[in-house]
Amino acid sequence: MSGPYLLRRLAAAVGVLWAAYTVSFAVLYLLADPVATLVARASDGTTLTTAELDALRAQYGLDQPVPVQYLDRLWAALQGDLGTSFVNGQPVTSTIGEALPPTLQIASAGLVLAVLLGAGVALTATYTRSRWLAQALMGLPSLAVSLPVFWVGLMLVQLFSFQLGWLPAVGARGPEALVLPAITLALPTGALIAQVLVKSMSQALAEPYVTTARAKGVGPLAVHLRHALGNAALPALTVLGYVTGNLLAGTVVVETVFTRPGLGRITVSAVADQDIPLVQGVVLFAAFVFVVVNLVVDLLYPLLDPRVAQAVPA
Amino acid sequence: MTELLERGPDRAPLPAEPAAHDRGRLFRFLRRRPGLVVSVLVIVFVLISAVFPQLFAPGDPNLAVPRERSLPPGPGHWFGTDYLGRDVWTRVVHGTSLSLQATLIAVAVALVVGGLIGLLAGFVGRWVDEGLMRLVDVLLAIPPILLALALIAALGFGTTNVAIAVGVASVAQFARVMRAETLRVRGTVYVEAARAVGTRWWVTLGRHVLPNAAGPVLVLAVLEFGLAILAVSSLSFLGYGAPPPAPEWGSLVAEGRNYLATAWWMCAMPGLTIAATVLAVNRVSKALDGEWGRDR
């Protein structure tokens, strides 16, 4: 892998992050008046004097002209300071940092489950000789993406917690509390993976090298797993950034349904309280994760597929 | 040429009754797809209940009958009743209009804004294209629901704001599809011909480019309709939609949540309605996307 390629990818990633910062700044600081929400929070029904209002504005740097605010906040963000929450006065970065571990737990459990489910459905659907089974399996993903996530979670709770009593309905204590949220989170994501993989598997199975392998007497399962899957998995890898973003966004609903602490929950309450800096922090964090995952995939791709490495100009 | 003339008399009867021919083909097409027929019926039903809810549920959606609290689904209340004794079926049917309005606004925002961005980027090209598409790339880097949440934080609560937020969050996809189509159409011979005879640019855009580039974007709009129902109901489930007494599909599920252990139908039935509607819309969009064209 060449240096210029790496630098170009890095520059593009930083560019996307900067633009995400600009878009979220425009939406949150220009579209709404942050001071109005600040006043609603601080006044407790009493009217504030102009001096008090000005002090409040100055405290959060909202008294500056917009371009100055933009540059100030951008400079601070570059140094890892995303401002302080309007609600609890804590730095946004530490609030996000504290909320992150439980969210990472269900997101990673969800990712593993989604890959297993998606790959399982896709591989069985393309492997089976029974048209009936293949049709049924290929119908599953479009069914899974049509179900409202919050409803699936609640129905799982009703069935497995209240009817059968197997798993806890709410909370984050112990590994068994992870099962239902992870399943809920994994269903739409697994469906996406299955759809991508079915498509690339069917393409791979139609390639001449598969015919060659079959002609040489390689068994159907070996052709399927060793010859076709290796090549079909690569296109599926490119949606990983999208998948991770989806999982992160999915925690907003899943953590609410299962009353778990985490990033999703603080997002829901930050939006409800119009806690502008915290909302911007979460949006930037999501964009950051998306960019990093895509960067890693971009950098790994030439290592996994030599053809891409050759196509990349030195 | 002679061949055509010779075959002339044979072919003559065909154009005489194109309607009957089309109808037969449509009938054969639908008979082999019972799922599609059911989907269309579901959508028609949902649309009618959005406009005339009284037709299917004559009662008052907010009328509480304390005697009939938390009744399971059965005759009389076939979706059951809620914790205040309100009929869930009536509330779901009356909630259709609010949920569907929000969905329509969302799709319209995405279609119009995204379509215009894509059309402009594809038709003008150069730096306009470059700039607009970079913006679209950024929108794609933020998960749609988080973008929608940020917009709600800025705009405030309410069904209309939720709808606008969902629409803006999916502008990027529309812009991309519209741009690709516009680029394709812009290179065609008839656009070149229109330019050559001196047509003004806005006439070219409105008369030649837009009608021919709109197809895939409209198919995407049908698909987006299903996604928007899900997004709008998720956000209304989270409590950003209409304030409580108003029935909305997502908030109906949220209301039932506290009674999940004892009265599952309060959550299950509105959710099932959402799922059925989205499934129906997705089935129709799949048919519009490929099957209908292929079958012909």
TrEMBL record, chain A:
Which UniProt keywords are listed? Cell membrane, Membrane, Transmembrane, Transmembrane helix, Transport
> What stretches pass through the bilayer?
12-32, 106-128, 140-166, 178-198, 234-258, 278-301
> Pfam families from the xrefs?
BPD_transp_1, BPD_transp_1_N
Question: Per its UniProt record, what InterPro entries does this chain match?
Answer: BPD_transp_1_N (IPR045621), MetI-like (IPR000515), MetI-like_sf (IPR035906)
UniProt xrefs under CDD domains: TM_PBP2 (cd06261)
PROSITE patterns to which the protein is assigned, alphabetical: ABC_TM1 (PS50928)
Places the protein is found: Cell membrane
Q: Which Gene3D superfamilies match?
A: MetI-like
Keyword Membrane included in the entry's annotation: yes
Superkingdom of the source? Bacteria
Report the membrane topology from the UniProt record: Multi-pass membrane protein
Instruction: Pinpoint the ABC transmembrane type-1 domain residues.
Output: 100-301
Name the protein family.
Answer: Belongs to the binding-protein-dependent transport system permease family.
**Descriptive protein name:** ABC transporter permease
UniProtKB/TrEMBL annotation, chain B:
Q: How does it sit in the membrane?
A: Multi-pass membrane protein
Q: Which Pfam families match?
A: BPD_transp_1 (PF00528)
So where does this one cross the membrane? 35-56, 98-123, 135-156, 162-178, 217-242, 262-281
Q: Where in the cell is it found?
A: Cell membrane
- Domain (ABC transmembrane type-1) spans 100-285
List UniProt keywords, sorted A-Z: Cell membrane, Membrane, Transmembrane, Transmembrane helix, Transport
Family membership, please give it: Belongs to the binding-protein-dependent transport system permease family.
This protein's name: ABC transporter permease
Species of origin reads Actinomycetospora flava
